[in-house]
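Homework help board

Subject: predicted structure for assignment chain

Our instructor gave us this sequence and asked us to write out the predicted structure in token form, then describe one feature. I got the tokens but I'm not sure how to describe them. Can anyone check?
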Amino acid sequence: MKLYGWRMFAMALAACVCAMTQSMAQKRIGGDGGGGGDGCYHATSTFSQTINTPGNMPWSGPCTYFSPTHPSTSHFDYLDFGKTATSDDQWQCIQEVHGSPDPGGEEPNLSPYVLEHYWVFPNLPPGPKYLVVEGHASPNANETGNFNFSYNLTGPSSLNSAIPGATIAYTPDIDARTSAYITNNPSTASYYILLIDSFRTQPGTQGDQQADQVHIDYLAICPFN
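My token output:
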């Protein structure tokens, strides 16, 4: 009887450890403390980059054309950040805008079309953070390049640090979900997430010759627990 009792105890203990391990694995990205129902934090505002741009012009705009597989009824304004809170095939649609050369400035070889767009995640608690994004880019010409994410913790006028692996590629009509490590900040901070086109100053190119689009279905910052 004693041996049987010990076996039952061992089996119960193993089941408990297995359940705890599974729970921890499920909470590695997301987990407790997130501002949304999915355990992650979501943007509370979004805007075009205008600081340090030629003439303070906005470097993103609304989508002006739609494909049959992407009707306007499922695409929403470039400032409608609420559409990125859930993965539901309703996209925040952002389009490149026509730039202008800035001789001697920060962008002396500025391409005809550019995109820089921010999302703000205010007052996130300390600790490691991941950027989780789901979406795709639609080129309007035979172009290459990606749209890359970066971040800063002080505001849109600050220098941004790249988020390695946080990229939206040219995959028309096919959403891809990516999770990329941002940073481990030791104190409460607001995160400014910047999306920027990568094609504008590639050597040997003339930059984007037509307005490309980015379709964001989901965007969140998630804690690592």
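Reply (TA_rk): Your tokens look well-formed. For the description, you could write something like this. The first strand starts at residue 45 and ends at 48. That's the kind of observation they're looking for.
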